[in-house]
Each structure stands twice: as structure tokens, then as C-alpha cells.
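Q: My labmate handed me this sequence with no annotations at all. I'd like to see what the chain might look like in three dimensions before we decide whether it's worth expressing. Could you predict it?
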Amino acid sequence: MKPGEDHVPGRCQQANEVISLVGDKWTVHIVMLLGGGTRRFMEIKRAVDGISQKMLTATLRGLERDGYVRRTVFPTIPPKVEYELTDLGRELLVPLQALGSWAIENHDRVKQARATYDARG
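A: Here is what I predict for the chain of 121 residues:
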């Protein structure tokens, strides 16, 4: 839905179903990381500061379930597992990169607005 469009019942729910996973802080990090190419589980874990193994597993499963990530298991001992973005995942990079750029460009403005608001206390 674009700004100014009339509200259409059910459209917000549809958007929320998709945005709920995408809006998760770990998902953004992982999608952006995989935008640089295929990665193995431990490569992702090392690159995403602060994520637990359990949370990484859950996030990758959610991304795979929703069609953003492809998981490939190679029949080796131990098994080699790689993760990569699907076409849908690569399409998701476009708005995420735009949002990330906007956030970086406006970080100081947001901090100032928060400080002004908090000072009114």
C-alpha cells in the first residue's frame, strides 16, 4: 500500500505477515550478509555479532521457509551446509539496502530528536 491510498481490509495483515520476519534484527543482518554470496553456518555465526546458535538456526529456518534463503546440504563427513539467497531474497535486498542507507544518513537526526524529546521529560 502506498501513502495516501485508501485502506483495504486485509492488506495490512498480508503486509504484516511478510514484514514480521523481515523486520527482525537478525534477519536483516543475515540477508545483507548473504547478499555478498553463499556462506556456511559458522561463517554466518562469526559474522553476525551477538547471535546465538539457536537463534541463528531459527532465523535461517524462517528465511528458508519463507523462500528467501536456499539451504544446500552436501553429502560429506561431516556434512557441509551452505546458505544462499534465492531470487526472492535478492529482491528483498533492494528495500533493505535503501532502508539501511536511510537509517545511516538520518542517524544523527534521530538521536537529536530523541534527546530533545527526553529533555522535555
